[in-house]
Each structure stands twice: as structure tokens, then as C-alpha cells.
Amino acid sequence: MPETNGHTVEKIGGTSIARTDVVLENVLLTRDAVKAPYGRIFVVSAYAGMTDRLLEDKKTGAPGVYALFAGARNKWEWSDALSEVAIAMQRKNAEVLGDSPEREEADAFVRERVEGVRNCLIDLHRLCAYGQFRLDEHLATVREMLAALGEVHSAHNTAALLRQREVNAVCVDLTGWRCERKLTLDERIQEALERIDLATQLPVVTGYASCVDGLVSRFDRGYTEVTFSRIGALTGAREAIIHKEFHLSSADPRLVGESRVRKIGATNYDVADQLSNMGMEAIHPKAAKGLRQASIPLRVRNTFDREDPGTVIRGDFRPARARPEIVTGLRGVFALEVFEQDMVGVKGYDAEILAALTRHDIRIVSKCSNANTITHYVDCPAGRAEQAATELDARFDGAEVGLRRLSIVSVIGANLDHAELAAQATTALVEAKVPLLGLHRLTRGTDLQLMVAEADFDGAVRALHAALIETRPADTLTDLDAAA
Question: Is it true that domain 8-245 has CATH number 2.120.10.80?
């Protein structure tokens, strides 16, 4: 690996990298970086919206190139969508690089990559028309290839942008384009970075990396953070930094109000895992695991707040004072309840329920049980939950299987060892006239989960945030560091 001397590895998200002017001033070429631009490795996501065009829209599910190719309702609809991607990429080139030789090079790069992908997909379509080859056996590879196209586009442009400003930036392409060898993720990273001199070169690395296991297949849209994490661990970075479009805050400011939320400042990887479980990822849990095991602290910074140091996540952090840090949660989860009067003292029920949930690809958020009832709180489409409930009803003769839609609101913190926390939370909901449907608190002291009706989610978050976070004095990052 490259010779290291206290370097950082930094990931720039899609929304941030799309704001070229802000990223240049606040991340790539800050006042300190202008004087000493090296000693950093940047991992970049595709520009905002580009992966949606290539795969499918993450929020609406609208089909992109991949979904159109896989569906094959119209033989060439996917090709038209790919042409639209090329136009969008060249439009971005003009925005980022202006009227310059670098833009002409970037346009040629896009044409070469896009037409290469198009020819590959046409050949695959033709090959599968003979019947001996099945298209569905190759779709995972197609998805990987299309995801890679968005990542290499932004990395190529960012490196060119830095070279325009006399920084010796190098685009490090981990996508495996025209590479005939199959490598593991670690091998791909090590081979690509072994000739990089971090003292004189600034590598801009693709967030997608081709490897034998398939990053998209394993981690879906979280693959960029996994690449970022492995680069940090393999190169021995002193710190990993994620540049996002927001602060890691005590609640969603759109729900609670900008003036009411607080930046976290410092926390630990246990809290990061709880946030992931609630769908509010500071970092993908697999990426967090890699950094935690390598003892690398993670800093989450707001791209649009240049002077703020952000929030530091460490493995060994624990504040001296018990304090809730974040109020968040999940709307519209399902409580899948199995009641069997004769369950008490009988083994096997739990295993059967888990097997059914696994068969239907259902994610478990939380779980509780007593003598004759087991309840799983699951996050999945309604159809899957209903299928699992029907299967379990048929499997357990005499059991009552219930399915109820509700929401989970979670109070999370690195140290929640506060004897009155549950009472304060319950009181806050009672005063806000929000009926409490359930409450879980584990002995580890990192989260308190409160189940409420789906329609009460917003009110519960506001009430708990006001009672548990807005009432205490604001902590500073220095104070929190001293308490670690």
C-alpha cells in the first residue's frame, strides 16, 4: 500500500459532489488544502440522480436503464434511457468543467464508456435469444456494470476539475472496466493504489469497486461507503470523513424545526448501528464495522457548513453524563404477533417464525416475547408481511396470528443509563395525547423504543425531542471529547 503519514480517507456523497462550487471551496480546496492539498484520498459517489437513472429511482421505484433492460417489455426502451443518461452526463460535464479541453476529454470519456456498455448489453440480449443462455443469470452483473458507470463519471470529472486548479489529482478507477481478472475487493483496492504517492498525488477513487462477490449484490446502494471503509482500513488512515448534505442532528429538522435540533458532536459506533436499524444511516453498518475494527474514527461533516468540525464517531466514546442524543424512528412497520396459549415451556416456535420471515425476505427491526406471545416488529412491504402471517397461521394450528401497522420511535444515545428516562418519555407522550402501544428498553442502554400508532409518529417525535433533548443545556464538542 502507499506510504502513509497520517492521511485521511474522505467520501463525498452524491448530493454534495453535484454542487461543484461548494465542494471545491468547502471540501476539496479549503484554505488549508490550497496550501497542502495532498495526504488525502477521496472516494466519490455518482452525481445526485445519476444512479437512479442507471438502476431505478430509489424513492419512487421508477425504472432506470437496468430495470428497463431486465423487464424487456420494450426491446430498445433501455437503450433510449441509456442515451438519455449520456446526455445528462455530458450536460454535467459542461456544468463542472466549462468550455475547456478537460470538458472535451470528459465528453469523449462518457461516449466511450456509454457505448461500451450499450454494445455489451446488445450482445447479451442477442446471446440470450438462442435459449441456451438465460438473461436472469446475468442480471446481477449488468446491475454492477451500470452502477459503475455513474461512479467513474464523477471520479473522472472531479480529478479533471482539480487538475484545472494545478492539483496533481489522479482518477483511480476501481470499476474493473475491460479487466479480465477477477479480484477480491481488497486486491482491487491494493492493486489500484500501490503506485500512488500520497505526498505528491491526490487520488480520486470510484465509489464502486468491481470484485468477485459483487458490491451492489451484497450492499445495494451502500456500496460506496463499503469501498470507502475498506480503503481506510487497508491504508491505515488516521481518520475517515463523510461529507454529507446535512449535520448528524438530534432529529429530522424538517419535522422538529431547524432552530430546535442540535448537532450531535460526538458519539460511538453503537449509536451508528442503532441509527441504521431505524433507517437513518450515518454510515452503512458493514462500512462502520470495518472502520470500528480498524480503530479508525469517523467524522460526519456538513458539506455546506464549511467551518463546522462535524460529528466524530469513535469505538471507545462514552459520555460521562447520560444523555439522549437522537430521536428518530420508522413509520409504517408491522407488528407480527403469534399468540399460542400452549407455547409456554415449548421450544421451536421462535425458530419456525424466523424461518418464515427469512423465506419472505423480511427485515426484523425489533422483537419481544412473553410466556405465550412472540411479536416481531418488521420493516417490509405489506404483501410480504401478509404472506408470512398467512403461512404462520397455517403452520401453527390453534395459534392466533395478528398483523398490525404502527410506527416505532427510538430515543438513541451512547449512554442512556438514566433511571428516569422511560418515565420521562412516557410522560411526554401522555402530555402530548399520544397513546403508547409498547415500550422496549435493553440493558445495554443505547436505545429506548416506543411503539405508537402510524398517524402519531410526527407528534411522538416532536414530544420526545422537546422533553428529552431541548430541555437540557447544549453540549459542546470539547465537553464531549473530555468526557470520553
Answer: no
Q: Which three cell numbers stand for residue 379?
A: 420493516
DSSP per-residue string spanning 363-385: EEEEEEE-SSEEEEEEES-HHHH
User: Which CATH code, of 3.30.2130.10, 3.40.309.10, 1.10.10.10, 2.40.160.40, is assigned to 326-483?
Assistant: 3.30.2130.10
Sign of CA dihedral 9, 14, 15, 16: positive
Calpha distance 419→424 (Å, rounded): 10
Q: How far apart are CA 247 and CA 268, in angstroms?
A: 16
Percent of the chain with pLDDT over 90: 73
Print the SS3 string covering 290-342: HHHHCCCCEEEEECCCCCCCCEEEECCCCCCCCECCEEEEEEEEEEEEEECCC
pLDDT tens across 236-249, in order? 999 999 998 888 99
pTM tops 0.85: yes
N residues, the chain: 484
End-to-end CA distance of the chain: 32
Q: Identify residue 174 by its one-letter amino acid code.
A: L
Which residues, in sequence order, are CB contacts of 421 under 8 Å at separation 6+? 322, 324, 411, 441, 448, 468
Q: pLDDT (tens digit, 9 = 90+) per residue, 192-204?
A: 999 999 999 999 9
